[in-house]
């Protein structure tokens, strides 16, 4: 069993605080991308942006992605790349792990945005389980 370092404990505490303040309902497990997901109304985008940036302060857009660290570029590639209206947020790397967020407006509809939060890098089963516990997304 992996012992969490103080940095990882803080990261999960920050994510727990993020979830408690989230602008929408619950979170679910996204099996396709192995992360948690929630959808919210675009009218809450400003509030959501502030909350996301408080935990995942690094931001990449299509224009800046080419300057991103390799793990960030891997996330973008693994999730189909970034469209012009999509954003990729991330926390600083800790112990070889990056927590990230995918901000995906619903194309053409303009009323909803999906937010996904996941971990990448040297993650373990325990790390992913902890993420799911933090977001209460244990059911598939």
Task: Report on this structure.
With 140 residues, the chain is an alpha+beta fold. It has a domain at 37-133. The chain has four helices and six strands. The protein has helices spanning 6-20, 45-55, 70-78, 125-134; strands spanning 28-30, 35-41, 58-60, 87-90, 97-105, 112-121. A six-stranded antiparallel β-sheet has the order 1-2-6-5-4-3. Strand 4 and strand 5 form a beta hairpin. The chain is globular. The two termini are 23 Å apart. The model has no long low-confidence stretch (mean pLDDT 93).
Tell me the distance between the termini: 23 Å
State the helix count: 4
Number of strands: 6
Strand percent estimate: 25-35%
Average of the residue pLDDT scores = 93
User: What is the helical fraction, as a range of percent?
Assistant: 25-40%
| Biggest sheet layout | 6 strands, antiparallel
Order of helices and strands: HEEHEHEEEH
Integer-rounded radius of gyration: 14 Å
Coarse shape: globular
Helix/sheet category: alpha+beta
- Strand order across the biggest sheet? 1-2-6-5-4-3
Uncertain segments: none
Walk me through the topology.
Layout: H1 6-20, E1 28-30, E2 35-41, H2 45-55, E3 58-60, H3 70-78, E4 87-90, E5 97-105, E6 112-121, H4 125-134
Antiparallel strand pairs: 1-2, 2-6, 3-4, 4-5, 5-6
Keywords:
140 residues, alpha+beta
Short synopsis of the structure:
The protein is built from four helices and six strands, in the order H-E-E-H-E-H-E-E-E-H. The protein has 140 residues and is of the alpha+beta class.
């Amino acid at each position: 069993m992996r012992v969490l370092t103080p940095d990882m404990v803080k990261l999960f505490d920050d994510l727990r605080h993020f979830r408690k303040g989230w602008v929408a309902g619950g979170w679910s497990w996204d099996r396709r991308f192995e992360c948690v997901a929630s959808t919210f109304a675009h009218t809450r985008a400003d509030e959501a942006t502030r909350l996301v940036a408080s935990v995942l302060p690094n931001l990449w857009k299509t224009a800046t992605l080419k300057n991103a660290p390799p793990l960030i570029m891997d996330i973008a590639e693994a999730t189909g790349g970034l469209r012009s209206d999509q954003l990729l947020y991330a926390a600083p790397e800790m112990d070889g792990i990056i927590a990230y967020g995918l901000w995906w407006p619903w194309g053409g509809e303009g009323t909803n945005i999906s937010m996904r939060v996941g971990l990448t890098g040297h993650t373990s089963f325990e790390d992913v389980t902890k993420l799911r516990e933090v977001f209460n997304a244990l059911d598939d």
